[in-house]
Each structure stands twice: as structure tokens, then as C-alpha cells.
Amino acid sequence: MGTTSFLTRARGLLRIRNQLVRECLAELLSTFVLIIITLGTAAQKITFFETKGNIITSYVGSAIAVMVGIYVAGGISGAHMNPAFSLAMCLTEQFPWWKFPIFVVVQTLASFISAGAVYILYYDAIWHYSNGTLTVSGPRETASIFATYPADNVSVANGFLDQVIGTGVLLVGVMGLMDTRNKPVPKGLEPLAVALLVLSIECSMGANCGCPLNPARDIGPRLFTYVAGWGPEVFRWVEGRG
Predict the structure, then answer these.
(1) How far is CA 199 from the centre of its chain?
(2) CA angle 24, 75, 164 (to 5 degrees)
(3) Domains with residue ranges and CATH for the chain
(4) Beta strand extents in the chain (DSSP E only)
(5) Which of 99, 76, 74 is CA-nearest to residue 86?
(6) Are the CB atoms for 52 and 40 separated by under 8 Å?
(7) Can you give the three-state secondary structure of 118-135, one letter per residue?
């Protein structure tokens, strides 16, 4: 009885009653889960010379990460996990504009933290693979573990168009899946449907720029690589990286 009473009191003290704080923490956790899995698949693929991962495991892992993130926080914050999606929700009047900058900051912060967690997790592997030099280009570059960079001969204009189209397809697909007036997804399986949508986009539009589809997913980890030792080159458009 004493232990039960103590746990009850502890839960009461730790309970967060402010709705905005609850939503922000949920968004932080869901985005963290999404990005740590996504970056982890890239780290495993690159640092182990594709012996313990490949492009397929990266695509599948990141798609499943989207599903897990939605299950983690979908009922609390909506599990946006993406500033582009938050913006789309504001434009369709399904999300208040005043919350938009707050969610963007939370999503970017979560992505930054996730990048740090992956760096710690794969610290030895990253330094072994890179021969002790953190670079953005070259045969032993490791920056692409964290942020996306263009393939050889992809121009700035083509890269921009690539991301506009890819993100647009993602948003149209998600909004369609969410529309209750449309053909409904079986209740509880919406996250799986979104994950399959993401996987299809990665398989069809991932070659040019790595298919981030998410400003926070790219900006947060890119900021991390800047402060962690890769330097200002992470903000430059690098062609012919291999």
C-alpha cells in the first residue's frame, strides 16, 4: 500500500497539465524517435562499408521510423515531426498559426539532439571509417550520415525542384489519408499508411538529394555537424562528392 501510494503521489507531481507543454514534449519525443532511427540507418550503412546495411535498409528503416513517431505522439501533438507538414496544417486551418514557430523550433531541436545521440552511438565507427578526419566530401566522408547532400552533377535548381516535388507529394498523400471524407484508412493503421507513402517516395525520388522531405530533419543534424567538427562546409552545395 505504501509503495502504491508513493507512486500515485509521484505521478500526480510529475503530471504535466499545460496542454502546450504536453504537445511540445510529445512533438520533441516523436521527432527524436524519427530522426535517431533515420540517421542510425545511414550511420550503420556508411561506417560499416555497407556490410551491415544498404540503401534498402535505410529506406525501410526511415519509413518505419515515421510510423513509430506517429504512434508515439499522434494523439497528443499530431506528430507533425516536419515543419512542412505543420505549415500545410496551418494553411488548411487545421493548426493555429501561433503554434507554428514553436513546433518548428521543437522539431529542429529534436533533430539536433537526435544527431548528437547517433554521433555518440556510432562515435568509434565514425572515427574509424573516416580515418580520423571529419569531411563532407571524398571517399571517406561522413557528413551524409547526418544531413542530405546532392548526387554528382545535380544542380541547385534541380535539387530545389526535387525537394519541392517530393515534399509536395508527401503532403498531398498525407492530407488525402487524413481526409475523413475520402476513402478512409482502417482506424489505427494510419501511421502504417503514411510509412508506406514515405517508402514509395524514397524509392522513386531519393536519388538526387537523399529525399529528406523535412526541413527539420536536414537543418538540425546539419547544425550539429557544423558544431561537432565538420565545419562550415556542411552549408555549401557540394557536387561530385564521391
Answers:
(1) 13
(2) 70
(3) 18-235 (1.20.1080.10)
(4) none
(5) 99
(6) no
(7) HHHHCHHHHHHHCCCCCC
